[in-house]
Write a structure and sequence with these properties.
Alpha/beta knot; alpha/beta; binds zinc ion; globular; single chain
Length: 199
């Protein structure tokens, strides 16, 4: 029998998160480029961003031809969230960084393990048109279900929440609330011994 999915949130009825959703009206448009290998990962947090943000799209693919939408993004006001050597640190409070953040309209985020994200970057040359942004200091990782999927051990949701908080000072608590709800739903049927390894 097929798993019954909630029409509201897309999760299984057993892990429905509709009650935990409170949409943030973000101005900065979030464009998530999701690697195909992430689509079946039930622990993927990009889907939560789609549910919790008014201005967020997910594009699936791995290379340039999969993302024709990138060509229409404004080069000056679009940033790529990626820890490149020359990345602008969003949490540094210099005048130049503040000016840069203020004029941003779009943020492109790669969703996949670091290895996959690096591959996407290499296969998608038009991403080089955008300035890279990253963090000098990482917030504490809240997503416990998926053990360190990326080298910075932040889930995609946390990386985007932190960016939105630093770029447009919006209150991102509803996103963390959604993440907490997901963790609770996913661990609710785990035996105590298994749960103890995560929490
Ligand atoms: Zn639901």
């Amino acid at each position: 029998m097929a798993r019954e999915l909630c029409s509201g949130c897309g999760f299984s009825v057993r892990t429905c998160l509709c009650n935990a959703i409170s949409i943030i009206n973000n101005k900065l448009k979030i464009i998530i480029l999701r690697h195909p290998s992430e689509e079946k990962v039930t622990k993927n947090t990009a889907h939560l961003l789609k549910l919790g943000l008014a201005n967020c799209i997910i594009l699936s693919g791995e290379s340039e031809q999969d993302f024709p939408e990138l060509a229409s993004l404004p080069t000056q006001s679009t940033a790529l969230l990626y820890p490149a050597d020359n990345a602008i640190m969003l949490d540094k409070c210099t005048d130049a960084t503040l000016d840069f953040k203020q004029q941003l309209t779009h943020l492109v985020v790669l969703d996949g393990t670091w290895k996959k994200a690096y591959k996407m970057l290499m296969l998608t040359p038009s991403l080089q048109h955008f300035k890279a942004v990253s963090f000098a200091t990482l917030p504490k990782n809240k997503y416990v279900i998926r053990k360190a999927p990326r080298a910075d051990s932040l889930s995609t949701l946390e990386a985007v929440a932190q960016s939105l908080n630093l770029i447009e000072q919006c209150n991102v608590d509803p996103l963390y609330h959604l993440l907490t709800a997901l963790v609770e739903k996913q661990t609710q049927h785990m035996p105590q011994a298994v749960k103890a390894r995560y929490l």
